[in-house]
Write a structure and sequence with these properties.
Number of helices: 21
Shape: globular
Helix content: 55-70%
Mean pLDDT: 86
Low-confidence stretches: 1-11
Order of helices and strands: HHHEHHHHHHHHHHHEHHHHHHH
Oligomer: single chain
Number of strands: 2
Strand content: under 5%
Largest sheet: 2 strands, antiparallel
Strand order of the largest sheet: 1-2
Structural class: mainly alpha
Radius of gyration: 21 Å
Distance between the termini: 34 Å
């Protein structure tokens, strides 16, 4: 891309100012530290999915470890491809890959009805379908003008707040709502504010890493970290193909359900890819969307091949890049390599997995707030008519309304469709795209 093109697109970033641009390489030390920072912010969300599945299926320890290892290998390889590219696969953007929780329900249902091997087979098939239709999805970028992109990012940021506060408050754990839990989460937000306000350059770019290290130390001082799991963890593990048995046909309905989930990931990945493109100052082109969606599919199939879960691009990237100013894809590629190391050296993963929920949750809340603020910035600079206001209002009403709906509100909807309809972020994005197509532009 020419300097002139870069300047044009860079001027459209809004408040996001980068200290490290997309193709900058800051040297081995900074690259490794920034890469680990990216992974730390998203690590618990990555391993949370496999742990939930393991708990719901009451899996034995060996099977649980295999699922965690397979997921991290898939995330690591797919993250490296996302950042560096492999042929037409990968958007070549600083995007970390992680688990999409929409797949938990189908995996558990298929495993209970048939087997875990059948669930992995369904994911492999779904991933290949995602890869096959990526050229078609790649053409969606023209349906994402700035007002739709801004709405998408705002929906992602606000929609994920529930996850952030659940993690921060320790929901589902013995530490839930304890004063120390809430205090630690609040301390994380305060530390990010202080470091961002009073530091510059390298230190400010590492604000999230520094915050989490301090939180880890404080939590250890209060006796919240038990290193026993680290002592039990192996030094080296060798992942296996098909750890739950070979391929097993899951049934047509199961495959259709999983493919619907992959369509949801394709929609969200499209909006995410366009948002990251905008922030790092490159044209929002169809080949990047095709590469990102293809990477979702191949990465998911690879993860399932090793016994892991289906993957998608993580929205936290938007917040991390906006806050730290680190937009280098080489940094994220190192983060992917670090994930593979954690999968192969369980002791490393065990140390990081000990990070208290309150520490990570406080950081996540701030990150999701940063994601939402990017969306607000884009909407604010492009909201020029009543038509635009209606698109934003309707999409937020549907998207956030679904997120806030009480349990059982969608029981009347068939199960295969319910997976899609109850994802507020995806439904809000689809509505924004539809309204932008059918609503006449005002003269």
């Amino acid at each position: 891309m020419s300097d002139q093109a870069s300047a044009v697109h860079g001027s459209d970033r809004g408040f996001a100012k980068l200290d490290l641009e997309l193709n900058d390489y800051p040297g081995p030390l900074k690259t490794s530290l920034f890469g680990i920072q990216h992974v730390l912010v998203m690590f618990t969300a990555m391993v949370g999915g496999p742990l939930i599945v393991a708990r719901l299926l009451n899996l034995p320890e060996e099977t649980r470890i295999a699922m965690l290892s397979g997921t991290m290998i898939g995330c690591g390889v797919a993250t490296m491809i996302s950042a560096l590219g492999l042929g037409f696969i990968g958007p070549r953007l600083p995007i970390v890959m992680g688990v999409f929780y929409i797949f938990i329900g189908p995996i558990v249902a298929i495993a209970k009805e048939i087997s875990l091997a059948a669930a992995m087979t369904a994911l492999i098939i779904g991933g290949l379908v995602q890869f096959a239709w990526s050229p078609l999805i790649g053409k969606l970028h023209r349906f994402f003008p700035p007002i739709v992109t801004g709405t998408t990012i705002l929906l992602i940021g606000t929609g994920l707040m529930k996850i952030g506060i659940n993690v921060a408050s320790g929901f589902g754990t013995p530490a839930f709502a304890k004063p120390l839990t809430i205090g630690l989460a609040a301390l994380m937000i305060l530390l990010i504010l202080v470091i961002t306000r009073f530091s510059k350059g390298f230190v400010r770019a590492l604000s999230l890493f520094i915050t989490m290290v301090i939180g880890y130390v404080v939590a250890a001082a209060f006796g919240l970290i038990d290193m026993g799991s680290v002592a039990k963890a192996d030094w080296v593990t060798v992942p296996k193909f098909f750890p739950y048995g070979g391929l097993e046909w899951p049934g047509l309905i199961a495959v259709i359900t999983v493919v619907v989930c992959f369509f949801a990931t394709a929609v969200e990945t499209t909006g995410h890819t366009l948002a990251v493109s905008r922030i790092v100052g490159v044209p929002q082109e169809g080949w990047r969307i095709r590469g990102a969606v293809a990477n979702d599919g191949i990465g998911s199939s690879l993860s399932a091949l090793f016994g892991g879960m289906a993957l998608t691009s993580y929205s936290q990237n938007i917040g991390v890049i906006s806050l730290t100013g680190v937009g280098s894809r080489f940094v994220v590629a190192f983060g992917g390599a670090f994930l593979i190391v954690m999968a192969l050296v369980p002791k490393v993963g065990a140390i990081i997995a000990l990070m208290p929920n309150a520490v990570l949750g406080g950081v996540l809340l701030f990150m999701f707030g940063m994601v939402a603020s990017v969306g607000i910035d884009i909407i604010g600079r492009n909201l020029t008519s009543r038509r635009d206001a209606v698109i934003v209002a309707a999409s937020l009403a549907v998207g956030l309304g679904i997120q806030a709906a009480p349990p059982g509100a969608f029981e009347a909807i068939p199960q295969a469709l319910r997976i899609l309809v109850t994802d507020g972020i995806v439904m809000g994005i689809l509505l924004a795209m539809l309204l932008n197509l059918v609503w006449p532009k005002e003269e």
